[in-house]
Amino acid sequence: MKQQHYHNHKRVPKDFFFGWVPAVLLILLITIANLIRVIMIKGDWISALTLFGYSICLLWLAWFTRIFSIKVQDRAIRAEENLRFFVLKGKLLPKKLRLSQIIALRFASDDEFVELVERAEREDLRSEEIKKLIRTWKGDHHRV
To answer: pTM of the prediction?
Structure first.
């Protein structure tokens, strides 16, 4: 796998953002146009409204599919980094750390992880600042 670093670590699921989402938005636009057309000609608006409702549900499904998978991933990252800190330091991560900080810290190697955790807590570093401070990048190739 390609070596990750600060400039190439972000992952964009292309099939989702350039396939599924545009298809759902296209369906929504077509059903809106159909609903307007049916209302203008005083046609069978029940079926047009039903199709519009289905397209809204499809849009919600696309949204929640992405959000739920990210939330589950965030919980897994929090648990993994808590365990890693416990193994290295003998205690749990500081409660003061925000989830965004913990997510950024997952890229740090074990050699600098504890130091960065303590610095992030002490200086209240933003996630981007944490990522820029990492000297030895530990890639995360299993993200959703």
So the answer is: 0.74
